[in-house]
Specification:
heterodimer, A: alpha/beta, 8-stranded mixed β-sheet, globular, B: alpha/beta, 4-stranded antiparallel β-sheet, about 20% strand
Chain lengths: ~325, ~350
């Protein structure tokens, strides 16, 4: 699509390690990906795979151990505190729990205006007008909602307020970490539609982190699958779901339950659970649970390589398309 | 649906062939500082032996309160219950705790959503499983321990003889949920209530747990009530589905029938707002506008009317009773303007879009 143009967000060989006693947990073990302007990249994986840590490391809420993050060609990693703060106005994050990410003691108007107040970009009527515009954009009535407190709103409405706050500085990139996981399906659909509308309206570029494969497919142009700190497969959404090449992607997709009784429940039953990231398997990290693992998988780490246009997979024995 | 029905005595001759559970006009009301809240409002259904019933609804629909009512697990201090829940020949509504204790674990068991809080964090797995065995059966310690190990292996826990000595924090979320299932199954209950048993678990673990539940259920001829917000979870693993909204059952039918020809606009809206992997990327979801009503001041007509695209004046003023579909007497729905059967489940019907 836009392979010739430079990516807006570029993650290069990112690693994030945590110390746990004397041991080191490598939550993110060297991942690289690009996100192009106006694109939504979905990041899926099971709990503990490092997808949230990746999101947090991009905006440096979690300090990357090594690697680089570039936004519009500008390095985010290595910036000093002041510079980082300024850079963060163009890259915002939305979290899973909408209620706890809002200050319960501030009114909605002030919550949404907080970035404006910090940067003193606008005051008085102009500030009020921007807040109104943002609240309207996320589907809240500014006259009703503005003077209320977060506790007076449902989870879905609180998530709308978080979105308004994230967008008020007109960021280029939005990192959404499990932003609809806590919501009921009917509300989830409202928020997913809203995200699509706002993306078009404000020309946003999104990294959409979630564990729900159907939700990720719905919003994403491309999807990256993560397992135990590494990327398994990256491909355009429709390709990835139709022709998954990595055995892990296949296992994930076969486990999805669809609201259709005619769909036979044929699972590639993945036995066991992911191994501990403290002592990950040698070679391919998925090999201990992989149905097609061979000797080579234990000795050699599979690198992400292109098997079809824009379809990358990190597997020695991927399922190639017919 | 009057209260008088609750006093009807069921003939005991039907006992073995008849349903395992009969819920009649159940009404569960909580008193809250804002007023009384009717969480379950006149629910009736029957459950056969070995049958799997899915109860589907969004948060606040009353599905969890219904499950807890069946188990007799609601706080006594602020709860009023009317109607009847007849489990075999035992009435659960208003039962003494001594009666319930005989049933809990032995005849009805429950698996909760959060395995971390439903397990005792300072007690080894072994004692948590053997507790009900020692209470309800005449097993001695050694027999109970052997049974505990066998249960752990039945629920797919590797090296059960060692894991039985573990504390809950030493297990992963999926393993903990397997342990709660083992505890629930210990005394071979006739009814298992599973309240969102896989919410919060990863997809691969969810598939494992759901498969485990279905295989155990058919092996043990156990009836299961599967409470969930996810239509996907119930689609392939239940015999019948009841859809709840604002404390009412708004539609109930066999699983096949429900998905093939749903009559209730709410069921359709729920299905249409669920993203699916079979749809292409960026498919516009048909969201349900607004949100569920406040159950302290419920609307006078159909509770779904304010959010329903088909609502008429009648819907807003008069509550639709639960009635039977003409083609299928087991299909019940509460709607004045039911969907045309046949195309109801189709995603492409233009009428529902807004």
């Amino acid at each position: 699509m836009s392979a010739e143009t430079a990516p807006l967000l570029s993650v290069k060989d990112l690693t994030v390690s945590f110390k746990k006693g004397r041991q080191v947990v490598q939550a993110v073990a060297g991942i690289s990906f690009d996100v192009y302007e106006g694109e939504t990249l979905g990041l899926v994986g099971e709990s503990g795979c490092g997808k949230s840590t990746t999101g947090r490391a991009i905006v440096r809420i979690e300090e990357p151990t090594s690697g680089e993050v570039l936004v519009a060609g500008k390095r985010l990693t290595g910036l000093g505190r002041g510079e980082l703060r300024r850079a963060r106005t163009s890259i915002q994050m939305i979290f899973q729990d909408p209620v706890s990410s809002l200050n319960p003691r501030r009114r909605v108007n002030d919550i949404v205006a907080e970035p404006i107040d910090i940067w003193k970009t606008e005051t008085g009527d102009q500030r009020a007008a921007t807040v109104r515009e943002m609240l309207e954009a996320v589907g809240l009535d500014p006259d009703v909602a503005g003077d209320r407190y977060p506790r007076e709103f449902s989870g879905g409405q609180c998530q709308r307020i978080s979105i308004a706050r994230a967008l008020v500085m007109k960021p280029k990139v939005l990192i959404c970490d499990e932003m609809v996981s806590a919501l009921d399906v009917s509300v989830q659909a409202q928020i997913l539609n809203l995200v699509e509308d706002l993306k078009a309206k404000y020309g946003l570029t999104l990294v959409f982190i979630a564990h729900d494969l159907a939700v990720v497919k719905n919003v994403s142009d491309r999807v990256a699958v993560m397992y135990l700190g590494r990327l398994c497969e990256v491909a355009p959404s429709d390709d990835l779901y139709a022709l998954p090449a990595h055995p892990y992607t296949q296992a994930l997709l076969s486990a999805v339950v669809e609201p259709d009784p005619e769909k036979a429940t044929s699972h590639v039953t993945l036995t066991g659970e992911p191994p501990s990231p403290i002592n990950p398997p040698s070679g391919c990290r998925f090999r201990t649970r992989c149905p097609s693992a061979q000797e080579r998988c234990a000795s050699e780490v599979p690198e992400l390589r292109e098997i079809a246009p824009r379809h990358q997979v990190a597997c020695h024995f991927p399922t190639l398309r017919p | 649906m009057s209260n008088e029905q609750s006093s009807i005595a069921f003939p005991s001759t039907e006992e073995l062939s008849g349903p395992l559970l009969r819920v009649k006009d159940l009404r569960t009301t909580f008193s809250t500082p804002r007023g009384s809240l009717t969480a379950v409002d006149g629910v009736s259904f029957e459950l056969g032996r070995g049958e799997t019933l899915g109860i589907v609804g969004e948060s606040g629909s009353g599905k969890t309160v219904l499950a807890r009512s069946v188990m007799g697990l609601l706080p006594r201090s602020n709860t009023t219950q009317t109607g009847s829940i007849l489990f075999e020949e035992t009435e659960i509504v208003g039962a003494q705790e001594a009666t319930l204790r005989e049933i809990w674990g032995a005849k009805i068991a429950m698996v909760f959503q959060d395995p971390m809080t439903s397990l005792n964090p300072v007690v080894r797995i072994q004692r948590q499983i053997t507790e009900s065995l020692r209470l309800h059966t005449s097993m001695d310690r050694a027999e109970a321990k052997a049974t505990a190990i066998s249960l752990l292996s039945q629920v797919g826990i590797p090296s059960p003889a060692e894991r039985v000595r573990a504390y809950p924090f030493q297990l992963s979320g999926g393993m903990r949920q397997r342990v709660t299932i083992a505890i629930a199954l210990a005394c071979s209950p006739r009814l298992l209530l599973a309240d969102e048993p896989t919410t919060g678990l990863d997809v691969t673990v969810q598939a494992q747990i759901l498969d485990l539940l279905s295989s155990l259920q058919s092996a043990r001829q156990m009836a299961v009530i599967l409470v969930t917000h996810d239509l996907g979870v119930v689609a392939t693993r239940t015999d019948r589905i009841a859809v709840m909204y604002a404390g009412h059952i708004v539609e109930m039918a066999s699983t096949k029938r429900l998905f093939a020809s749903m009559a209730m606009p709410y069921t359709q809206a729920l299905l249409r707002s669920t993203p699916r992997i079979s749809q292409p990327s960026h498919t516009r979801l048909i969201a349900i506008d607004g949100r569920p009503p406040d159950l302290i001041n419920p609307p006078s007509g159909c509770a779904f009317a304010p959010r329903c695209t088909y609502a008429t004046d009648q819907c807003r003023s008069e509550r639709p009773p639960l009635r039977t579909a003409p083609e299928d007497p087991t299909h019940l729905f509460a709607c004045w303007n039911p969907l045309q059967t046949g195309n109801a489940g189709s995603i492409t019907t233009a009428k529902g879009e807004n």
